Amino acid sequence: MGRKWNNIKEKKASKDANTSRVYAKFGLEIYVAAKKGEPDPESNRALKVVLERAKTYNVPKAIIDRAIEKAKGSSDEIYEELRYEGFGPNGSMVIVDALTNNVNRTASAVRACFTKNGGNMGVSGSVAYMFDHTALIGIEGKSLDEVMELMLESDVDVRDIVEEGDTILVYAEPDQFHAVQEAFKGIGITDFTVAELTMLAQNDVELPADGLVKFEKMIDALEDLEDVQQVYHNVDFGDE
Question: CATH classification of 2-72, choosing from 1.10.155.10, 3.65.10.10, 1.10.10.200, 1.20.120.430?
Fold first, then answer.
Protein backbone atom coordinates (compact mmCIF):
# COMPACT_ATOMS: atom_id res chain seq x y z
CA MET A 1 0.00 0.00 0.00
CA GLY A 2 2.93 2.32 0.61
CA ARG A 3 3.62 3.15 -3.02
CA LYS A 4 -0.03 3.99 -3.61
CA TRP A 5 0.01 6.42 -0.69
CA ASN A 6 3.23 7.93 -2.02
CA ASN A 7 1.54 8.54 -5.37
CA ILE A 8 -1.25 10.43 -3.61
CA LYS A 9 1.28 12.44 -1.60
CA GLU A 10 3.11 13.36 -4.80
CA LYS A 11 -0.15 14.47 -6.42
CA LYS A 12 -1.09 16.47 -3.35
CA ALA A 13 2.33 18.15 -3.22
CA SER A 14 2.04 18.98 -6.91
CA LYS A 15 -1.37 20.52 -6.39
CA ASP A 16 -0.22 22.41 -3.31
CA ALA A 17 2.38 24.07 -5.53
CA ASN A 18 -0.39 25.59 -7.68
CA THR A 19 -3.05 26.58 -5.20
CA SER A 20 -5.05 28.85 -7.49
CA ARG A 21 -5.70 25.98 -9.89
CA VAL A 22 -6.54 23.63 -7.03
CA TYR A 23 -9.00 26.08 -5.52
CA ALA A 24 -10.70 26.63 -8.88
CA LYS A 25 -11.14 22.89 -9.38
CA PHE A 26 -12.54 22.45 -5.88
CA GLY A 27 -14.86 25.41 -6.37
CA LEU A 28 -16.37 23.72 -9.42
CA GLU A 29 -16.57 20.30 -7.74
CA ILE A 30 -18.31 21.79 -4.71
CA TYR A 31 -20.76 23.69 -6.94
CA VAL A 32 -21.66 20.56 -8.93
CA ALA A 33 -22.07 18.42 -5.80
CA ALA A 34 -24.23 21.05 -4.13
CA LYS A 35 -26.29 21.55 -7.28
CA LYS A 36 -27.08 17.83 -7.59
CA GLY A 37 -28.65 17.64 -4.13
CA GLU A 38 -29.30 19.83 -1.14
CA PRO A 39 -26.56 22.46 -0.60
CA ASP A 40 -26.14 21.12 2.93
CA PRO A 41 -23.35 18.59 3.61
CA GLU A 42 -25.36 16.94 6.38
CA SER A 43 -28.00 15.83 3.89
CA ASN A 44 -25.82 15.64 0.78
CA ARG A 45 -23.18 12.93 1.20
CA ALA A 46 -21.43 13.75 -2.08
CA LEU A 47 -21.00 17.35 -0.98
CA LYS A 48 -19.74 16.23 2.43
CA VAL A 49 -17.02 14.09 0.80
CA VAL A 50 -15.86 16.99 -1.36
CA LEU A 51 -15.75 19.34 1.62
CA GLU A 52 -13.71 16.85 3.66
CA ARG A 53 -11.24 16.56 0.79
CA ALA A 54 -11.13 20.34 0.40
CA LYS A 55 -10.19 20.69 4.06
CA THR A 56 -7.05 18.57 3.57
CA TYR A 57 -6.01 20.90 0.73
CA ASN A 58 -6.65 24.02 2.83
CA VAL A 59 -9.26 25.41 0.44
CA PRO A 60 -10.34 28.81 1.85
CA LYS A 61 -13.79 29.04 3.41
CA ALA A 62 -14.62 31.96 1.11
CA ILE A 63 -14.24 29.76 -1.98
CA ILE A 64 -16.35 27.01 -0.43
CA ASP A 65 -19.10 29.43 0.62
CA ARG A 66 -19.13 31.10 -2.80
CA ALA A 67 -19.54 27.77 -4.60
CA ILE A 68 -22.39 26.69 -2.32
CA GLU A 69 -24.15 30.05 -2.61
CA LYS A 70 -23.86 29.82 -6.39
CA ALA A 71 -25.51 26.39 -6.25
CA LYS A 72 -28.34 27.82 -4.19
CA GLY A 73 -28.97 30.51 -6.82
CA SER A 74 -30.53 30.40 -10.24
CA SER A 75 -27.39 29.49 -12.18
CA ASP A 76 -28.28 27.29 -15.15
CA GLU A 77 -24.74 26.05 -15.80
CA ILE A 78 -24.82 22.32 -16.49
CA TYR A 79 -21.71 20.20 -16.02
CA GLU A 80 -21.31 16.58 -16.98
CA GLU A 81 -19.18 14.10 -15.06
CA LEU A 82 -17.00 12.18 -17.49
CA ARG A 83 -14.41 9.44 -17.16
CA TYR A 84 -11.72 8.76 -19.74
CA GLU A 85 -9.45 5.72 -19.72
CA GLY A 86 -6.21 5.27 -21.56
CA PHE A 87 -2.73 3.87 -21.79
CA GLY A 88 0.69 5.46 -21.47
CA PRO A 89 4.09 4.05 -22.45
CA ASN A 90 5.06 0.48 -21.55
CA GLY A 91 1.58 -0.65 -20.55
CA SER A 92 0.94 2.09 -18.00
CA MET A 93 -2.73 2.82 -17.31
CA VAL A 94 -4.51 6.10 -16.64
CA ILE A 95 -7.99 7.15 -15.52
CA VAL A 96 -9.09 10.75 -15.98
CA ASP A 97 -12.16 12.17 -14.25
CA ALA A 98 -13.53 15.45 -15.55
CA LEU A 99 -16.33 17.96 -15.02
CA THR A 100 -17.24 19.85 -18.16
CA ASN A 101 -19.83 22.06 -19.79
CA ASN A 102 -18.40 21.23 -23.22
CA VAL A 103 -17.90 17.52 -23.86
CA ASN A 104 -16.28 17.94 -27.27
CA ARG A 105 -13.71 20.39 -25.93
CA THR A 106 -12.78 18.15 -23.04
CA ALA A 107 -12.59 14.93 -25.06
CA SER A 108 -10.37 16.60 -27.64
CA ALA A 109 -8.04 18.07 -25.01
CA VAL A 110 -7.71 14.80 -23.09
CA ARG A 111 -7.05 12.84 -26.28
CA ALA A 112 -4.35 15.32 -27.29
CA CYS A 113 -2.57 14.87 -23.94
CA PHE A 114 -2.42 11.13 -24.52
CA THR A 115 -1.37 11.14 -28.17
CA LYS A 116 1.26 13.88 -27.80
CA ASN A 117 3.00 11.94 -25.03
CA GLY A 118 3.12 8.42 -26.41
CA GLY A 119 -0.22 7.27 -25.07
CA ASN A 120 -3.62 6.47 -26.48
CA MET A 121 -7.23 6.61 -25.34
CA GLY A 122 -9.04 3.39 -24.53
CA VAL A 123 -12.71 2.49 -24.51
CA SER A 124 -14.81 2.69 -21.37
CA GLY A 125 -13.88 -0.15 -19.02
CA SER A 126 -10.54 -0.91 -20.66
CA VAL A 127 -8.59 0.34 -17.64
CA ALA A 128 -10.93 0.84 -14.69
CA TYR A 129 -11.22 -2.88 -13.95
CA MET A 130 -7.56 -2.82 -12.87
CA PHE A 131 -8.27 -0.22 -10.17
CA ASP A 132 -10.21 -0.38 -6.91
CA HIS A 133 -12.50 2.45 -5.82
CA THR A 134 -11.21 3.11 -2.31
CA ALA A 135 -11.78 5.35 0.68
CA LEU A 136 -8.45 6.46 2.11
CA ILE A 137 -8.25 8.31 5.44
CA GLY A 138 -4.97 9.30 7.09
CA ILE A 139 -4.30 10.66 10.57
CA GLU A 140 -1.37 11.44 12.83
CA GLY A 141 -0.99 11.18 16.60
CA LYS A 142 -2.14 7.58 17.07
CA SER A 143 -0.36 4.25 16.86
CA LEU A 144 -1.21 1.48 14.43
CA ASP A 145 -2.54 -0.70 17.26
CA GLU A 146 -4.74 2.13 18.59
CA VAL A 147 -6.30 2.70 15.17
CA MET A 148 -6.87 -1.02 14.62
CA GLU A 149 -8.61 -1.27 17.99
CA LEU A 150 -10.71 1.81 17.24
CA MET A 151 -11.91 0.43 13.90
CA LEU A 152 -12.85 -2.87 15.53
CA GLU A 153 -14.71 -1.17 18.36
CA SER A 154 -16.51 1.10 15.88
CA ASP A 155 -17.47 -1.89 13.69
CA VAL A 156 -15.99 -0.21 10.61
CA ASP A 157 -15.30 -2.50 7.65
CA VAL A 158 -11.75 -1.72 6.49
CA ARG A 159 -9.53 -3.32 3.86
CA ASP A 160 -6.20 -2.48 5.44
CA ILE A 161 -4.54 -0.26 8.04
CA VAL A 162 -0.88 0.64 7.53
CA GLU A 163 1.73 2.92 9.03
CA GLU A 164 3.64 5.31 6.76
CA GLY A 165 6.07 7.44 8.74
CA ASP A 166 4.01 9.51 11.18
CA THR A 167 0.77 8.76 9.33
CA ILE A 168 -1.66 5.91 9.94
CA LEU A 169 -3.65 5.11 6.80
CA VAL A 170 -7.02 3.40 6.73
CA TYR A 171 -8.06 1.82 3.43
CA ALA A 172 -11.77 1.01 3.25
CA GLU A 173 -14.73 0.47 0.95
CA PRO A 174 -16.05 3.76 -0.49
CA ASP A 175 -19.28 3.51 1.51
CA GLN A 176 -17.20 3.43 4.71
CA PHE A 177 -15.64 6.86 4.09
CA HIS A 178 -17.82 8.68 6.60
CA ALA A 179 -17.84 5.77 9.06
CA VAL A 180 -14.04 5.88 9.31
CA GLN A 181 -14.07 9.64 9.83
CA GLU A 182 -16.82 9.45 12.42
CA ALA A 183 -14.85 6.83 14.34
CA PHE A 184 -11.89 9.20 14.50
CA LYS A 185 -14.06 12.19 15.35
CA GLY A 186 -15.50 10.17 18.22
CA ILE A 187 -12.07 10.25 19.89
CA GLY A 188 -11.47 13.92 19.10
CA ILE A 189 -9.57 13.66 15.81
CA THR A 190 -10.98 16.10 13.25
CA ASP A 191 -7.90 16.88 11.15
CA PHE A 192 -6.92 14.37 8.49
CA THR A 193 -3.69 14.25 6.53
CA VAL A 194 -5.61 12.68 3.68
CA ALA A 195 -9.32 12.15 3.06
CA GLU A 196 -9.88 10.80 -0.42
CA LEU A 197 -12.25 8.68 -2.44
CA THR A 198 -9.71 7.48 -4.92
CA MET A 199 -8.96 4.86 -7.55
CA LEU A 200 -6.00 2.69 -6.52
CA ALA A 201 -4.24 0.44 -9.00
CA GLN A 202 -4.30 -3.24 -8.12
CA ASN A 203 -0.74 -3.56 -9.41
CA ASP A 204 1.87 -0.87 -9.93
CA VAL A 205 4.26 -0.88 -12.88
CA GLU A 206 7.77 0.52 -13.16
CA LEU A 207 8.89 2.39 -16.25
CA PRO A 208 12.38 2.86 -17.66
CA ALA A 209 13.82 6.35 -17.18
CA ASP A 210 12.85 7.64 -20.61
CA GLY A 211 9.34 6.21 -20.30
CA LEU A 212 8.94 7.70 -16.84
CA VAL A 213 9.83 11.18 -18.10
CA LYS A 214 7.32 10.90 -20.94
CA PHE A 215 4.64 9.51 -18.64
CA GLU A 216 5.12 12.27 -16.05
CA LYS A 217 4.83 14.86 -18.82
CA MET A 218 1.53 13.29 -19.89
CA ILE A 219 0.15 13.28 -16.34
CA ASP A 220 1.17 16.92 -15.84
CA ALA A 221 -0.54 17.88 -19.10
CA LEU A 222 -3.75 16.10 -18.09
CA GLU A 223 -3.80 17.67 -14.62
CA ASP A 224 -3.26 21.10 -16.15
CA LEU A 225 -6.50 20.83 -18.12
CA GLU A 226 -9.18 23.10 -16.69
CA ASP A 227 -11.91 20.43 -16.99
CA VAL A 228 -9.91 17.63 -15.35
CA GLN A 229 -10.56 17.02 -11.65
CA GLN A 230 -8.62 13.82 -10.93
CA VAL A 231 -5.99 11.70 -12.65
CA TYR A 232 -5.23 8.18 -11.43
CA HIS A 233 -2.50 5.85 -12.70
CA ASN A 234 -0.61 2.65 -11.93
CA VAL A 235 2.98 3.90 -12.27
CA ASP A 236 5.41 3.63 -9.39
CA PHE A 237 7.44 6.83 -9.18
CA GLY A 238 9.72 5.31 -6.56
CA ASP A 239 11.07 7.76 -3.98
CA GLU A 240 10.42 10.89 -6.05
Answer: 1.10.10.200
Other Cβ atoms within 10 Å of 42 Cβ, number = 8
User: What would the pLDDT profile of 113-156 be if each residue is shown by its tens digit?
Assistant: 999 998 999 999 999 999 999 999 999 999 999 999 999 999 99
Domain 131-201, CATH class in plain words: alpha beta
What tens digit of pLDDT does each residue of 93-117 get?
999 999 999 999 999 999 999 999 9
